[in-house]
Design brief:
251 residues; alpha/beta; Rossmann fold; 8 helices; 7 strands; 45% helix; 16% strand; globular
Amino acid sequence: MNAELAGQCALVTGAASGLGRAIAHRLASVGAVLALVDLDRDRLEGVLKDSGASGVALVADLSNPDEATRVADEAWRELGGLDVLVNNAGVSGVGPPKPVAETPLPEWLQVQAVNVTAPFLLCKEIVPRMAERGRGVVVNVASMAAFLGLAGRGPYCASKSALVGLTRALALEVAERGVRVNAVCPGWIDTPFIGARMSDPAVRAAAQSQVPLGRLASPDEIADAAIFLMTSASRYMTGAALVLDGGLSLV
């Protein structure tokens, strides 16, 4: 199944660590050509080297709209087109969790810029080009927070809900032109993204106890779902929000 991704060109944002790194490794293992985006060139080049992937490392601050637009154009040009776009880059907030009433406007704007505006701009630049060719896949990395409230992370919850809404609208707009758009909505993943919060063993144990499956997800488990959405195994899926949270949203 995954062999069909061999030779396909994929852009993955937030690829220097965590889930983005896992997705990049999965794509490299089946012979995809990669454009990896993050803030740290050395770490991006390390992912390319470690995975054995062909491709390019593109440094960009996706909170800057001009950078998001630039990297979309650069990735398309460097790889000669794109078959897959993975909008994975995200931020949970600035500093520790805080109530909405105590959240500064700059923090709200920063979270929306990375989690919603950057995927919007990347899709705006790339999806029409995919549609012109009559093929393409977009995977947006949302979160269980799109459906569940996380106290202290109002901007994050709002951004991930918005990303799911964007996924659904865009899927309808381009379905007849051969482009599919879906989202993965992970729960707790054992990545540096939540590492600081889970570094306290008591906090980690409490989080795991809330999950019916009794543990955090590994990045590879979520990456496998992302790969599924890129292949013909999911060819009848578009506009879906695939929840992978160990059953947490059921309780």
